[in-house]
Amino acid sequence: RLAAALEQGSSHPLAHAILEKAGDDKLPQVNGFRTLRGLGVSGEAEGHQLLLGNQALLNEQHVATDDMTAEITAQASQGSTPVLLAIDGKAAALLAVRDPLRSDSIAALERLHNAGYRLVMLTGDNPTTANAIAKEAGIDEVIAGVLPDGKADAIKRLQSQGRQVAMVGDGINDAPALAQADVGIAMGGGSDVAIETAAITLMRHSLMGVADALAISRATLRNMKQNLLGAFIYNSIGIPVAAGILWPFTGTLLNPVVAGAAMALSSITVVSNANRLLRFKPKA
Fold this sequence. Notes:
By secondary structure, the protein is of the alpha/beta class. The protein has 12 helices and 10 strands.
């Protein structure tokens, strides 16, 4: 109840889960609410000083968590995110929150793998939780325990290795990383800051949309190259003939009617090939 009261002022996904669990319970009013970036939240309710967040938050505030360490590790190894509640300077509760992997997320990640992309999870969660989820999802690399400012730095490091990075995110904390990436992709329903920062905004909150966006991008680039090749072939044949290259040998010149027809046919070929992209169907 006190944890849910604190989370009323937060937009974090974990906050939504805790509030949903509280249901219709009447929650006390919170005073002095503060968001502690990368750590959690704090405030006062019913005369108690409250802290809610990860183990690092309680350690920073000198709240002993030794009695909970074993359970924290156990929950994290199962892919759950441990959320600790401290009341008046003492650890009072441990909440384990997990958002199960959607079946379409695993399928989308598999599509990205098959397309040759290397998948990296960049998260503020603790490494144990992140690695458990990454193993289940088939993600190649995990960069965990990263504070919001550190996400952009992590992308800089990847770019310094010569990699081109596409960042997918939906939260306020993802905005610097979305701006730093070569391509920023905001998920539908994400924060306004993330959507404004990203180069691409997906209309649905699904990783399948990421796979679709990259697939149609590749198809578009391939189509452009085909169109350039087609136009080059028409012009490389038509222009020399029109200039009289065959005249010394065969006495042939390009009839203006034929030249006009060839030019029109070239345009029709390019447009028809480009229209094939209209048949692109996103996977469900």
